[in-house]
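Q: Given only this backbone (351 positions), what sequence would you predict?
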């Protein structure tokens, strides 16, 4: 009997949110932006010379790197781009987490972290959030091979203060600390200014949420020039041409339109704050969220029941069948009109 299966790398894969395709659906399960990309993105696509698609893209993605660096006031040599923040984070895991000592991340967090750790054979320890689903910096003052956490956290939406982030950094000068800021543009403070103070800090962001471009897959990160150079070495050893031609031009167009970015994120934050009042009125409990979603639990009705009944109405939210959070729903903030339909449905379900 053949034994080739003994050498297969076996992993339990990450399970993305459901991607239904129904004309009457309201999709609030994958934290997508309910508004279209900036108008310049459409214009860039319409004007792009299709003949250029026969050519390889610039492996350095310099046009996008330079634009992102300029927008955030950092050097291009402190900036790295990839195919969505998942690609950036996977590269960072491969590059920086190579110790035999376990890396640390929260027990309730982005569920891709343990998948990458398993795939790349990185030892890891999950650090429990406190009873309020918050990170406690003191828990990260132990020997480790690296640290990663989202801020705001996912799926809870809780923000960790800059003081707490610095406390973690100061206690861990000998490992790389990654702050995953996929949701930072919805009211939280970015750790980006700290990269000038801490050479071991990597700050990761994305176009997928706040810039309405989940379908184009653009992620990026900032760090010291040395960290970014190591990331690029791994990237060029893995796949030199990670960013395609259309992604580069649309990425530039999106970040140039700062007014549109602020308008749409402002709408989402306004709707989120209104939605918090509606959730409270209907008997939901939740911690404060600085993301484009709210993590809720109802005082009477089980989360799984609400999830299933909403699904019957073609309203999709995210349910996690996991320890500690199996009675919570993560609900993306849609447009005001979409949220009004959601709350009308919830009133029927909860009556």
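A: Predicted residues:
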């Amino acid at each position: 009997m053949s034994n080739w299966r003994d050498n297969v790398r076996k992993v339990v894969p990450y399970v993305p949110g459901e991607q239904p395709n129904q004309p009457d659906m309201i999709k609030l399960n994958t934290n997508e932006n309910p508004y279209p990309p900036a108008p310049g993105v459409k214009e860039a696509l319409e004007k792009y010379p299709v003949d250029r698609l026969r050519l390889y893209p610039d492996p350095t993605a310099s046009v996008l790197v330079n634009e992102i660096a300029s927008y955030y006031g950092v050097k291009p040599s402190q900036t790295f781009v990839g195919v969505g923040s998942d690609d950036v984070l996977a590269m960072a895991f491969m590059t920086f987490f190579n110790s035999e000592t376990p890396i640390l991340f929260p027990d309730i967090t982005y569920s891709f972290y343990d998948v990458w750790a398993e795939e790349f054979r990185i030892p890891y320890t999950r650090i429990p959030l406190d009873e309020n689903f918050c990170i406690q910096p003191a828990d990260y003052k132990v020997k480790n091979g690296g640290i990663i956490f989202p801020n705001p956290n996912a799926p809870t939406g809780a923000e960790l203060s800059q003081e707490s982030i610095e406390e973690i950094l100061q206690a861990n000068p000998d490992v790389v600390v990654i702050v995953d800021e996929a949701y930072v543009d919805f009211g939280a403070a970015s750790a980006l200014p700290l990269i000038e103070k801490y050479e071991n800090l990597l700050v990761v962001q994305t176009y997928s949420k706040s810039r309405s471009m989940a379908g184009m897959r653009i992620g990026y990160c900032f760090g010291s020039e040395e960290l970014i150079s190591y990331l690029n070495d791994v990237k060029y050893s893995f796949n030199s041409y990670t960013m395609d031609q259309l992604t580069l031009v649309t990425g530039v167009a999106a970040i140039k339109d700062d007014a549109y970015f602020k308008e749409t994120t402002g709408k989402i934050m306004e709707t989120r704050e209104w939605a918090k009042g509606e959730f409270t009125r209907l008997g939901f409990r939740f911690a404060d969220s600085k993301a484009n979603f709210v993590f809720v639990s109802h005082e009477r009705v089980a989360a799984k029941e609400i999830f299933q009944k909403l699904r019957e109405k073609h309203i999709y939210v995210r349910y996690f069948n996991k320890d500690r959070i199996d009675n919570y729903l993560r609900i993306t903030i849609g447009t005001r009109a979409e949220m009004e339909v959601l709350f009308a449905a919830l009133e029927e379900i909860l009556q």
